């Protein structure tokens, strides 16, 4: 077994795609799972010493025919997204129960409403607290009452922390809401006015790009990791590729200037790997239709490699060959 797998950590990875793009304003994220596989995700993880199980792409459950349910206002594509969230929650719970680390390939960020809920349900039963690291340009803490657009990918974190307005989204699937104190918004640089007020009222920890500029990734990430460790918690990483600067990751529909640099993003992943706390992962909002020759997909794969133990010095580059000559 490669040293990338921490002693005592699960050695199996379970990969599951969810080709959903109903929560976003631009179509295209449904091609994300295929692009991530094509970019080499599975061979990379296998080379790091893990047993990788590819469970293919999930299908949503049929829409719930409930005449008594009043559909929430200002929540676009609610019924269809409900089918995805229900299916993802049930499958995430099963995968977590199997002892593998689930890796969910999206798809837009509504994926997390199901993936995190299912994983959180598993850890509740184990008596462990699940913490959620939200690597994103956006807080995604809207509700139907605060959203400007009605796009449900912007409500994912709020739903997961128990905010009202989407109370029947899971149907008969158990809801395992997180305390807002276990959410860390990291890399944020765009937040709506009412959403900001809600986040502040919940006293949610935010490491926005201003704080990252002032204190650096290392200080802020170590502080968060120490909080998780102090509670004997485990960690779900929800990685939206718009966390990265658009020059590094153009293949997203919601680009915001001033995002994480290549080295900042890799340091986040390297510190998470060193801590050995990560037990589930989302990769969301990759839109291959908007990408430039697969640049965003390849960058995302490299970052997931760092999360699971690949070192920068392991990656051959043209400069390596030159440096060895001198």
From TrEMBL:
The keyword Nucleotidyltransferase does not apply. It is an enzyme of class 3 (hydrolase). SUPFAM superfamilies: Arginase/deacetylase. Coiled coil: none annotated. GO terms for molecular function: arginase activity; manganese ion binding. It catalyses: L-arginine + H2O = urea + L-ornithine. Pfam families: Arginase (PF00491). Mn(2+) binds at residues 109, 136, 138, 140, 240, 242. Pathway: Nitrogen metabolism; urea cycle; L-ornithine and urea from L-arginine: step 1/1. GO terms for biological process: arginine metabolic process; urea cycle. It comes from the Bacteria. Binds 2 manganese ions per subunit. Keywords: Arginine metabolism, Hydrolase, Manganese, Metal-binding. Its cofactor is Mn(2+). GO terms for cellular component: cytoplasm. Its EC number is 3.5.3.1. InterPro entries: Arginase (IPR014033), Ureohydrolase (IPR006035), Ureohydrolase_dom_sf (IPR023696), Ureohydrolase_Mn_BS (IPR020855). Belongs to the arginase family. This is Arginase. It comes from Rhodopseudomonas palustris (strain BisB18).
